[in-house]
Amino acid sequence: MHMEPAPGVLLPEEPARRDARHEAKIERIARQLRQRTSARPASFKKKTPPHQVPKRYDSRRGDEKIDLSDLDQILELDPVAMTCTAEPAVTFEEVVRATLRYGLVPIIVPEHKTITLGGAVAGCSIESMSFRDGGFHDTCLEYELITAKGDVLRCSPQEKPLVFQMLHGSFGTLGVLAKLKFKLIRAAPYVHVTYETYATLEAFQQAIWHYFTAQEADYLDGQIFSPTQHVLCVGRFTERAPYVSRYDWLKAYCESIPRRTEDYLTVYDYLYRYDRGVTHVTPRSLVGRALFGKLVHSDTVLRAAEHFHRFLPAKNPPVIVDVFIPFSRTAEFMDWYHREMHFYPVWCVPYRRMRDYEWQTPRWWSGVKDPLFLDLAVYGLEQPRGRNLYKEFEDELQRVNGTKTLISYNYYDEQTFWSIWNKETYQAVKQLTDPDNIFRDLYTKTCRAALGLQEQTPGPGAS
């Protein structure tokens, strides 16, 4: 399959010139950090909008900005070793277009085209190969990090391993990720998807467990449409396809799932089958899609929300949340969800536990024996007046020993937050990479600044 590379993705450039240009960018950023005199918090300016839930009162909009928008080049693509080295502002779409020329793709490709490599590390990206290989961070081999003091660190599982592990889910609070190297996998030109429908959660989970243990599929995700309709989407690479479907205009992939028994897509179209919406697509009407379907996708929606943030809800914003449930506790959680939330569809992504990650506390891990989690994602649940559904999710997660990503609204109190996220390991890295706390600590950034709440002024390295 021939795929034209996106402009500027993979330039025929001498390695020495390419590396010199990267080093010049690093020096510019490091110099800005070393010469910084402001007492204001700092955060990052990027060329793509952050793939987080936009918030009306997010105080980070007033931060001093560190411009990372030119960290947007693929530096090396090694088709023999099956690795890619790139700067963090490169989008996954750019990587996919470049690697497909060699019959390769990243192992984990997030669902939206404009998610960046750095964003996937900082914000915990997973997708339908996660049942085999965990998250995108689990496929990474090396990072280059610029500290708040302007020093450059190189870290890997062998060199500064705690720094390497703690960058995942750190949301830019531990420094500037400047370069990363990650693994690729061989891909056929097409993906054949079969849709298996189950009337009960028990049967749905049994099927997930079968594919998890047998490892006989390449991709696995699903949608829960009601307490009695669960559809598992099983994807396998294939060299030939009798037809191909596309869902980038009038048709929506999420709407096709309960209507079909099988489907064929090019690898590229499979990887971005959800780019216009995972469980709901805008516009909803056929006329609206005919007029605007090619224009409205994840990037345009996020850009509009950020630009017009003053018009975002001041209270009771719709719920957009990803929760991770230990496989054996899924029935308990879904009983609660059907009773209290009853909003569908729910996206389901099985996630293999690759290690006891250092960013969660030992106490939290002590309650989790499962080798598999289910990431259950809810998009657009309206909140009734008088209820905080985000807080209700957080409380239920405590009961079933689950956790969540921090991309959405977070209402944890500080004590509860640090009973889940590992303050000891976080602080050990923070002291090395941001001792004066110019990038805020993880709790302050995701639970207070994001909501526009008054921030404490901790001492150096404190949280």
TrEMBL record:
InterPro entries, alphabetized: Diminuto-like, FAD-bd_PCMH, FAD-bd_PCMH-like_sf, FAD-bd_PCMH_sub2, FAD-linked_Oxase-like_C, Oxid_FAD_bind_N
Keyword terms: FAD, Flavoprotein, Membrane, Oxidoreductase, Transmembrane, Transmembrane helix
PROSITE patterns in the cross-refs: FAD_PCMH
Compartments in which it is found: Membrane
Membrane in keyword set: yes
Recorded topology in the membrane: Single-pass membrane protein
Compositional bias ranges of the Basic and acidic residues kind: 14-30
EC number: 1.3.1.72
Pfam families: FAD_binding_4
Broadest EC class assigned to this enzyme: oxidoreductase
Annotated segments matching region Disordered: 1-62
Domain FAD-binding PCMH-type as annotated: residue spans: 3-187
Record protein name field: Delta(24)-sterol reductase
